[in-house]
């Protein structure tokens, strides 16, 4: 065991998947991470409700154009300093100083790039209001990059509660800013203020929870070189993959229709930001600490299954109740966005099983392989997206994204086979119960969808939508758990779920027994 202590932060690290309760520790770490992100996204949803009811689609279209640029620049210049630090068994202070120095240099670079691009981009989008928006929005990635590097030690010790608290409080601060600005003077500046407030609060809280005195040093730059070098390639290609539809549609569509598409993308991004991304955080440490190939294969199958099992029902719900969700959250003025939300949710579904591939490759010092996969994805995305957007606008972009997701499902499986010597058939077989459960859930929700669609009151539509979702969710769990029991109760996410439910029930029985008077 090794301990790292600096400026009051003391956490325990080390160990591998042979330690007792490893699966439970990983599940609890993922649960805290998901809780923080999910609660944060719920607050974001409430913020979105306020904004969509106070502003017009044209306001969202304008900010979406600026945010597209910011997201691409942030991704191209991203430096995931946490991953190299997590790979180190016992990093010393100079390693954290190196991480901070690299992100500080990145922050300067982002500012220079945004200033240089602001006016050409305003001309590209035919929108003269973009330069000042870009200048202020650039503060968001700069602040995110300045978070205390010592926060990674919480991940190493599988303690993600501080990070969850940071997510929740930063989103609450952003919500407060939005309420004040909308009350004073509703405009697109409320969206911009909320976007910058969140990373500002995150940055301040990180230094309160993990105190760190910034020092400039590049002593350990070689330990970061492979991840940052390849990550620049991966991030640049990924950014273009995820944002190419916004770039093309931001120019091709009017601000109002583009605003509807952008808000639909915001809904679909919620599972990614609230569930997928948080789950990969503890996975990085877990893959790095697992050296036996058989155990690593088992861990991969559990992680991949978790992605599909947890996020699949959310996307299916979005796809089937899309029109109702848009009506409930944004109101009748946003009619027409439902078809975008439904299509985008379905397009994302095939990409879930192999989402942790980049995390696996980086933890095994095979970052170049992750870059190869992203390059293949990039090489088919650009021509397909250009052709399909020209063919049918936003709907064409959604069709292209779905086709790419299906293609990359199998390409990614081949890369996993090279990394883990795990057959493609075995990788796909672990998801069949989830697929059957999702089909049953979709059928139940389709049968009862008109029960929600006929409602003209947003409040009653929300109540009825919750009922339909509950029916679908119960069906999904019942089918999955039934198949799991029928086929021998293998070690999987279902077994962890049943174990935790039994533990909760036993704890409840024990409390009741302790309160019962003894004769």
Described by strand count, sense and barrel closure, the largest sheet is:
2 strands, antiparallel
The separation of the N and C termini measures 49 Å
Q: How large is the share of residues in beta strands?
A: under 5%
The global form is globular
Task: Give a written overview of the molecule.
With 519 residues, this protein is mostly helical. It has two domains: 15-430, no CATH class; 431-499. Helix content is 79%, strand content 2%. Strands 1-2 form a two-stranded antiparallel sheet. The N and C termini lie far apart (49 Å).
Features:
519 residues, two-stranded antiparallel ribbon, disordered N terminus
In short:
The protein has 519 residues and is mainly alpha-helical.
What is the fold's blueprint, element by element?
Layout lengths: L1 E5 L2 E5 L8 H33 L2 H20 L5 H6 L5 H32 L5 H8 L1 H7 L6 H5 L4 H24 L4 H21 L11 H32 L2 H35 L3 H28 L1 H9 L7 H11 L8 H7 L3 H54 L3 H6 L2 H22 L4 H29 L6 H23 L4
Helix pairs in contact: 1-8, 1-11, 2-4, 2-5, 2-10, 2-11, 4-5, 4-6, 4-10, 6-9, 8-9, 10-16, 11-12, 11-14, 11-15, 12-14, 12-18, 13-14, 13-19, 14-16, 15-16, 18-19
């Amino acid at each position: 065991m090794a301990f790292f202590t600096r400026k009051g932060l003391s956490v325990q690290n080390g160990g591998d998947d042979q330690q007792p309760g490893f699966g439970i520790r990983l599940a609890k770490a993922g649960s805290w991470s998901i809780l923080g992100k999910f609660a944060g996204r719920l607050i974001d949803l409430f913020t979105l409700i306020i904004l969509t009811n106070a502003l017009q689609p044209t306001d969202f279209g304008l900010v979406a154009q600026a945010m597209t640029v910011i997201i691409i620049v942030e991704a191209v210049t991203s430096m995931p300093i946490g991953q190299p630090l997590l790979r180190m068994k016992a990093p010393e202070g100079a390693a954290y100083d190196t991480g901070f120095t690299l992100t500080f240099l990145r922050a300067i670079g982002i500012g220079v790039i945004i200033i240089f691009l602001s006016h050409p981009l305003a001309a590209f989008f035919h929108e003269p209001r973009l330069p000042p928006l870009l200048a202020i929005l650039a503060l968001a990635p700069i602040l995110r990059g300045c978070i205390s590097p010592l926060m990674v030690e919480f991940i190493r010790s599988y303690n993600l509660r501080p990070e969850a608290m940071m997510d929740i409080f930063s989103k609450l601060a952003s919500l407060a800013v939005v309420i004040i600005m909308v009350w004073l003077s509703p405009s697109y500046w409320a969206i911009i203020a909320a976007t910058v407030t969140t990373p500002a609060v995150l940055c301040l809280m990180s230094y309160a929870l993990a105190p760190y005195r910034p020092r400039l040093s590049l002593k350990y730059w070689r330990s970061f070189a492979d991840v940052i070098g390849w990550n620049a390639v991966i991030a640049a290609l990924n950014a273009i993959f995820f944002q190419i539809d916004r770039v093309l549609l931001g120019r091709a569509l009017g601000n109002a229709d583009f605003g509807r598409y952008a808000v639909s993308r915001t809904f679909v991004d919620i599972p990614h930001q609230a569930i997928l991304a948080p789950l990969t955080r503890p996975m990085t440490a877990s893959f790095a600490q697992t050296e036996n190939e058989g155990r690593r294969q088992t861990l991969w199958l559990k992680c991949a299954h978790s992605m599909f099992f947890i996020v699949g029902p959310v996307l299916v719900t979005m796809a089937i109740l899309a029109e109702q969700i848009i009506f409930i959250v944004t109101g009748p003025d946003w009619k027409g966005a439902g078809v975008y939300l439904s299509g985008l949710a379905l397009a994302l579904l095939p990409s879930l099983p192999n989402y942790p591939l980049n995390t696996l490759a980086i933890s095994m010092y095979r970052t170049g392989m992750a870059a190869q996969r992203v390059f293949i994805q990039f090489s088919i995305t650009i021509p397909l997206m250009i052709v399909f957007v020209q063919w049918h606008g936003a709907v064409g972009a959604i069709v292209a994204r779905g086709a790419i997701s299906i293609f990359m499902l199998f390409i990614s499986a081949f890369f996993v086979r090279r990394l883990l010597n795990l057959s493609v058939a075995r990788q796909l077989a672990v998801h069949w119960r989830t697929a059957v459960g999702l089909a049953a859930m979709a059928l139940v929700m389709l049968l009862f969808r008109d029960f929600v669609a006929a409602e003209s009151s947003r409040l009653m539509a929300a109540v009825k939508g919750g009922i339909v979702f509950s029916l679908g969710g119960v069906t999904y769990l019942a089918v999955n758990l039934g198949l799991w029991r029928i086929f021998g109760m293998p070690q999987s996410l279902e077994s962890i779920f049943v174990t935790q439910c039994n533990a909760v029930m036993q704890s409840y029985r024990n409390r009741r027994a302790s309160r019962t008077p003894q004769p």
